[in-house]
Amino acid sequence: MRAVTWQGKRTMSVETVPDPVLHSPDDAIIEVTSTAICGSDLHLYEVLGPFMDPGDIVGHEPMGIVVEAGRDTRLAVGDRVVVPFTISCGRCWMCSRGLFSQCETTQVTEHGSGAALFGYSRLYGSVPGGQAEFLRVPHADFGPIRVGTELPDHRYLFLSDILPTAWQGVRYAGVGAGDTLAVLGLGPVGQFAARIGVHRGARVFGIDPVPERREMAARHGVEVFDPGSDTIAAIREVCGGRGPDAVVDAVGMEAHGSPLGGAAHAAVGLLPDALGRRLMETGGVDRLAALHAAIDLVRRGGTVSLSGVYGGQASPMPMLTLFDKQIQLRMGQCNVKRWIDDLLPLVEDPADPLGIDDLVTHRVPLGAAPQAYAMFQQKSDGCIKVVLDPRKEHHVQP
């Protein structure tokens, strides 16, 4: 089969690799019909290289058709399924409490990490990912989400990650009707977080430097701002001088405007892999501009909810401000299946209340993945969300 593989920093390559096979009675194999590039994939592309091996198959936002099903899966050949990015058993102590991203059956204890993830480095189990023609799905007796056949892939695809991630971020923010919410970063997760805030009745402010992202969010009732010097003051002013009730940071560790973190990321990328891994595990520093802005912006007694990924173990935090402002911090890898019952009716609603039809800016063949990664990282050509189609022609026309 053909698959997108990591070959080095900023180097993805579409290669021919062995087809997956069943390893366990609760495994399934799906033919991937759509698979997306996630903002988290850019961390592998840029920052987390020390935990990657050349040839690793990437991707964690897939859906497709079951072509093989182990006897314990309760799936049938021909089922159309979305595959959550977290690999969870559904039965352990953590899963029984809805903490599927902390599954004790698949935890990567060697690195002190939570549940294994598809296509996401040694830190999360080096499980082959979903940017491929076929995917082996472990624990398929629990993970895959059966969906209908009437709607196009993109209406369901984002149940794999970014839609429940945004939903969890807004739920953790604790906002509803009459509240105020700011969303930092209007990439795919930020787009959905802002729209979910509007759907829940909050007044939502979206902050992003990219005009196309601001324009997209504005189409869905979000009040948008460029992250200029006056933005925090302007939002604070319309929130009674206090700031919003909650802020969702949908940017994470690669925020712009963080020279210390940026230099640390660059340094890690120049080290031999073993030294780079050690530095990331014990002394990594994130780019914290977005998080510090969230802490500054939120009102006293408010909540900062982190949907963007952070990976540093030595990132400096403004503890005096956090304590003095009585800020609640909530965060964590998304517990995808905890939110599916809430989201599936919204995804299938003909009115499309979360604007899912207005997110994908590029759908390209699997063979175009290397160019799509570069375009997504550089935010060129109005790129906000890329979906790869493994069933289209393999090669990009010159």
From TrEMBL:
Positions of the Alcohol dehydrogenase-like N-terminal domain: 25-143
Domain named Alcohol dehydrogenase-like C-terminal: residues: 188-253
Record CDD domains: FDH_like_1
Entry-linked InterPro entries: ADH-like_C, ADH-like_N, GroES-like_sf, NAD(P)-bd_dom_sf
Keywords: Metal-binding, Zinc
The protein's required cofactors: Zn(2+)
Listed name of the protein: Zinc-dependent alcohol dehydrogenase
